Amino acid sequence: MKEIVFIAHPIPETGIDRLRERFEVSVHPDIRPLETPALAEKLAGCSGVISLLCDRIDGAVMDRCPQLKIIANHAVGYENIDVAAAKKRGILVTNTPGVLTAATAEIAFALLITLTRRIIEADRFTRAGRFIGWDPLLLRGDELAGRTLGIIGMGRIGQDMARKCRAFDMRILYHNRGPVDPETERALSAEYVSLDDLLARSDAVSIHAPSTPETRHLIDAGALEKMKPGAYLINTARGDIVHEAALADALAAGKIKGAGLDVYEFEPKVTRGLPDLENVVLLPHIGSATHEARDRMSAMAADNVIAALTGRTPPNLVPEMTER
Ligand code: GLV
Predict the structure, then answer these.
(1) 131 CA distance to ligand 1 centroid (A)?
(2) Does 324 score more than 80 pLDDT?
(3) What is the chain's mean pLDDT, rounded?
(4) Atom number, ligand 1, closest to the C-alpha of residue 263
(5) Which are the catalytic amino acids?
(6) Which one of 3.40.50.720, 3.30.470.20, 3.40.309.10, 3.20.20.80 gives the CATH number of domain 101-282?
(7) Looking at the chain, which residues constitute the CATH 3.40.50.720 domain(s)?
(8) Alpha-carbon torsion 244, 250, 254, 257, what sign?
């Protein structure tokens, strides 16, 4: 009898086709997350699952699925999975690193330039028939060249954002758990600084850190207060890194000039007040939403499942899985 793989939401066919060649595959047809008991019920009898960030998989769910061998998250982040609980039960956990780096850095850069060059406002202005001729005073924004970008979280995506912003002649500061290797620092002309220093010196701050207990509300009212007056904030990482109510206050007060958000503290809910502000750009968590990245994520998640269910080590085990 074929082993059963459950895919908790529709994903690109690339990975589904690969799995169908070997296993019985069941795709839950809804994008809304299953409540925990319903998810556990669906998973009972399954050997593998492809999950999304909205699927909370904890020890209690795992206990109801004794045949489960692998949880393959279709995302680079995996804070939705209790990895310690999985490890204790001998269940493997994988993610999709590397394949969505360019796509996510592109969306962070897109948010930055959309804000600094007032793209949304300019589009609305033109559509409204208000363009009556070239005007030297019209819709002036802030030039990126010569300005300073502060990157919080200098992993793959943070480094790619640095690379893109260097191409636009920006100066790069970064804060991370520790400095990156000197060669990367040199290649990106990036300076490692404390968080306070980064906040005080950056014209725009872009967040690229994972969601952990240490990063939760890293950007709170106090941190926003330390930012340069008139700076921009971009978050394409995880919503809970920013205290969104404090951000809405800082934006309304004009302390922060603009914010570009692809992720939300209470996702998919957007904190009250934010959509009423003109100086924010709000995206529906589309950082990795290119055809290329999403196809690769789907294939990678499937390959991880195939490896685990055919007795091989999946190529993308999350780091905690290999730590002693
Ligand atoms: C998306 O947010 C991901 O972690 O891949």
Answers:
(1) 39
(2) no
(3) 97
(4) 2
(5) 238, 267, 285
(6) 3.40.50.720
(7) 4-98+291-322, 101-282
(8) negative
